[in-house]
Amino acid sequence: MTKTDHPEALPSALNSLWNNLKRLKLDDLYLQSFLGYIHKILNDHLSYCNEFQKELFLVMLRSYLDPEIYEAFFGKAPIKVSVIIPVYNAEQYLPQCLDSVIYQSLPDIEIICVNDGSTDNSLAILEEYAAKDHRIKILNQKNQKQSIARANAMEIATGEYVQFVDADDWLGETCCECLWLYSKIKNTDMLSFGCTCFDDDKQSV
After folding, report:
1. What would the pLDDT profile of 16-27 be if each residue is shown by its tens digit?
2. d(Cα 173, Cα 170) in Å, to the nearest integer?
3. Cα–Cα dist 169/100, whole Å
């Protein structure tokens, strides 16, 4: 590929290449050797980019490629954002909250949910979602309130950035991606942003 090639064509090419390699049923040693060669070509192609441009390009690829295919060519993607969600008796809102997080446009996130001694169905909901999405981690603790729940989650967070979400919040689809991009571009340590309040009784903002 040259600098002028359209980057949006690359995911399709990699998907096709991977499917063809799988059909050939190559032995593991040969396959790893071939993947290493493709990886070198892609790195050479990106050599004119700075580190942030490379990272951005890989994020774009990651959003298009099946996780197995991405990892085959580039290895495991680092976690960009650790989303921390304290949960206490939030069964009414929790599914909408979790849906909004797992379907973020930025795929390289981990979701740490802290069950803060819930007595309702919250834990069962968390376990149901964790069974379907490997990015979800559940911490269980006796009720110690939000600040302790967040602090305990931060002990195991591995993301480049941490984002706090309450169990009755929901995020726009590009929220994590926009915040991560803005933080990288501006080189910020911390960001705060506004929200839109939703009235349950009136069913309106």
Report:
1. 666 655 565 655
2. 9
3. 9
